[in-house]
């Protein structure tokens, strides 16, 4: 999914943070660590031992980016994708009678201090509810192939949109109402993650027809079939069953917290094709 020619995205949306020392894992994304932390959106304070010093909090931000830069520079892609997500979700929640607020966003390297505790790059992209912030080390996108996904713009944007979905759950009360401590194929933890996948699909199905109010052009060019397949492959790659297989263990649905590869693909597709909050209500169905 590429940004439309003529687009321009203001700076100041994504703060540059972190850059501290990592005591364990060296900042590399490992499959075992991914199995524990990837896409959690939960309190990370238990992982503080992995970080020696996240360093001072930066006051620098990703600067204004053109569409061309957003298509070639990952920090610009992060910032521009958030711009699109802001517009799509503010409109969607307003139409549903809900209240919208933007999440904060940080791009970091190695380590970062958050409202959920200190975290390293090994944590993968995540959303922290206490400080309502999305944290992404964009070097993570290079690791998608480890889990069997093809890298590409929409695959990367899916990751960001999924984490943004957790913010929507936070401001609509889903995070507070769900029991996110449980595990299992039918657990609330899985339902939270699959709903965030569905919300990511909603954004993907809408962004190419959503006009940036600042430029008057649509945010993104129409999705190609190849790009859609890349996003679906990314969703499948982070399925609990695939991660368990890749980490050398057997598949154990009782320990799932995110859903299977098939489920993650299917719920992303549901959001993409149906595009409604009602269709993404994973708590209202027995058929996950």
Automatic annotation (TrEMBL):
Is the Nucleotide-binding keyword given for this protein?
Answer: no
Localization = Membrane
One Pfam family name is Zn_peptidase
| InterPro entries assigned | Uncharacterised_pept_Zn_put
Q: List all membrane-crossing ranges.
A: 22-40
The ranges of region (Disordered) come to: 243-262
Q: Which GO terms describe its molecular function?
A: metallopeptidase activity
Q: Is this entry keyworded Transmembrane?
A: yes
Q: What is its main location?
A: membrane
Name the UniProt key words of this record, in alphabetical order.
Hydrolase, Membrane, Metalloprotease, Protease, Transmembrane, Transmembrane helix
Q: How does it sit in the membrane?
A: Single-pass membrane protein
PANTHER family found in the cross-reference section: INNER MEMBRANE PROTEIN (PTHR30168:SF0), PUTATIVE MEMBRANE PROTEIN YPFJ (PTHR30168)
Q: What is this protein called?
A: Metalloprotease
Query: Which species does this protein come from?
Result: Cellulomonas humilata
